[in-house]
Amino acid sequence: MSKMESINFIDTFAEFKELKNIDRPTLISILEESFRGALAKMFGSDENFDVIINPDKGDFEIWHNREVVADEDVEDPIRQISLSEAKKIDADYEIGETVADAVDFLGFGRRAILTLRQTLSSKILELQKDYLFNKYKDRIGEIVSGEVYQMWKKEILLLDDEGNELLLPKPEQIPADFYRKGDTVRSVVLKVENRNGNPKIIVSRTSPMFLQRLFELEVPEIHDGLITIRKIARIPGERAKVAVETYDERIDPVGACVGVKGARIHGIVRELRNENIDVINYTNNISLFIARSLSPAKISSIQLDEENRKADVYLKPEEISMAIGKGGMNIRLASMLTDYTIDVFRDIDEADDEDIYLDEFNDEIEQWIIDVLKSIGCDTAKSVLAIPRDELIQRSDLEEETIDDVLRVIKAEFEE
């Protein structure tokens, strides 16, 4: 019998014992396979050897089985043992019986022992890789938690509760995310790569699927299938729009998602670094869906070009800035949610006959400035005057002097 401690294999056994995800039969099988490989290399065959593994104690036994034959009949010393040699082991042995004697593994030599240890270590690594890939390949789209282990410029390394590595790349982090080592991070499994046998688990906090899974956790009606999330549009960390519907007339899907005094949605908003979330009722009526997607703005009318998936939306002057939103965010999300290119126009009624289109000022205001103002929904003189100066500067990103010149020219026209 050879003891693990005597040849420094106890550490390798310890590594195996730590692999809680590997079942006992697999563990013993791989250990035995490694030892049999070494035996075959040393003796030319492993057929006449018994390998007994005891991973709990960290030891093993190797027994060499040979048939007792007459001294002159020994042809294969691996399978046969002479009667005289057998009687040295035990005087009671007779021809035809089987001798099982312990093999001293130290006799294999240092190189064989080192090779065996390396083989075991590589098999441990293979087991870990296979387990990691198999564990996560069917979990794409699920929420996982990981502890921040290391932070780099382009990605964060997380460890799950079993110590498996998860990667959170910079583009998959919410811009306001800030972590320290040891922090717990929730994310969704985005993809599982397996290049050259090296599994890589990529997780995300910016994916729409992450927002959907958070809703499923917070809203029982979604988890139970009574409410369905039909579409999600996100600008991570800033704003999101979620279209929901239900076939149960007794349920208010928007109210159920928001909760009493916003209780249900508050936890989601906090997890997403105060991302502003609009929940709207889904409908197959595309005009109505576009109108709802531009909430909180109220539209006057819509002209659809279904072939090119374009929509011209007309609004009252005071609604235009809400429809476009800060930095054009609201209209961009509405376009993402509906898959329509949306353009907003000022709805000029008869009472606004005295209003003037900005293009008519191109002799005093440069055309590129007019185009910038039109891009934020200001296509007439009064629509510019309806927006406070500071908000105009912020939304248009034009210089203060430029905005002041525009306001001076427009005001002068009406003062006349």
UniProtKB/TrEMBL annotation:
Signal peptide span: none
* Keywords, in A-Z order: Cytoplasm, RNA-binding, Transcription, Transcription antitermination, Transcription regulation, Transcription termination
- Single Gene Ontology BP annotation: DNA-templated transcription termination
Q: GO MF terms on file?
A: DNA-binding transcription factor activity; RNA binding
Task: Give the UniProt entry's GO cellular component terms.
Answer: cytosol
- Which InterPro entries does UniProt cross-reference here? KH_dom-like_a/b, KH_NusA_2nd, KH_sf_prok-type, NA-bd_OB-fold, NusA_N_sf, S1_domain, TF_NusA, TF_NusA_bacterial
Residue ranges constituting the S1 motif domain according to the UniProt record: 141-206
Q: What is this protein called?
A: Transcription termination/antitermination protein NusA
Q: State the species of origin.
A: Microbacter margulisiae
Gene name in the database record: nusA
